[in-house]
Amino acid sequence: MAQAYPIIFDNVDSETSTVCTSPTICTTSPICTPPTTNSNPTTSKDQQKWESFQSSIPWPGRTFIIRSHDTGQVITFLDGEIILDKPGGFGTFRWRCVERRGWLGFRDPVSARYMGYDSRGWIRCAVDKHNDWEYICVRKRPEGGYVLLVLVENKLLPMGVCSQETGGVVRQRVKIRDWNSEGIVWDFIEVPCPTV
C-alpha cells in the first residue's frame, strides 16, 4: 500500500498553506504560524522561506524538488513546458533521479517522461527514454548549489533561466545557457516519493 507524505508550502502573501499529499493532489487551508522577524532587511521573503532547507546531493533512486538558488522558484512541468514556478503550484515539481551509463537524468514520476532539451535548447519533458539529450551532469559549486550541465556537441553547457513571452504572458523557462548567464545555480531538496 502506498504511503502519502504531506509537503507543506507556506504561501508568503497570505495566511494559507498548500498541502501536497501526492504529486497531483494539493489543497489549500488556513494555517496558524507565529509572526517572524527579519534581522536582514535585504533578504527576500522567498529566501527566508527556503533558508531552513539544505541542498541535498542528487543521487539515483531518490526524488527531489529542484529550485533556483537565486529566486527560490522550482523547476515545474506544467502544460507541456518546463517552467520556473512557485513551490506548490499546479504543475509537477518532483523529479526522480535516475542513472544510465553513468549519466544522471530526472524523470517526472507522473508522466514517466524525462527532462531533456529540444533542438532550440529549451528544456522539455517529452520522451519516455533516458538518452543523450536527457543526460545531465550535476556539478557542485564551492560557493554552494549545483550547476546542471547537458551534453551538446561534445561540450557540457549549463541549464539556466530565460524569460519567454507567449500570448502576452511572460514565463520563466529553463534553457541551455552559456557560462556567463545568470540563474544557472540550482539546489536539490530531497523529498519522499510515494510508490504507486
Main attributes of the structure:
3% helix, 15 strands, disordered N terminus, 1 helix, mainly beta, Actin-crosslinking, three-stranded antiparallel β-sheet, Trefoil (Acidic Fibroblast Growth Factor, subunit A), 196 residues, globular, ten-stranded antiparallel β-sheet, 46% strand, single chain
Task: Describe it.
The chain has 196 residues and is mainly β. It has a single domain (53-191), classed as Trefoil (Acidic Fibroblast Growth Factor, subunit A), CATH 2.80.10.50. Mean pLDDT is 77; it is low at 1-44. It starts with 6 loop residues before the first strand and ends in a 5-residue tail after the last strand. It is globular. The strands form three sheets. Strands 4, 7, 8, 9, 10, 11, 12, 13, 14 and 15 form a ten-stranded antiparallel sheet that branches. A three-stranded antiparallel sheet has the order 1-2-3, with no helix packed on it. It has a two-stranded antiparallel ribbon with strand order 5-6. It contains one helix and 15 strands, in the order E-E-E-H-E-E-E-E-E-E-E-E-E-E-E-E. Helix content is 3%, strand content 46%.
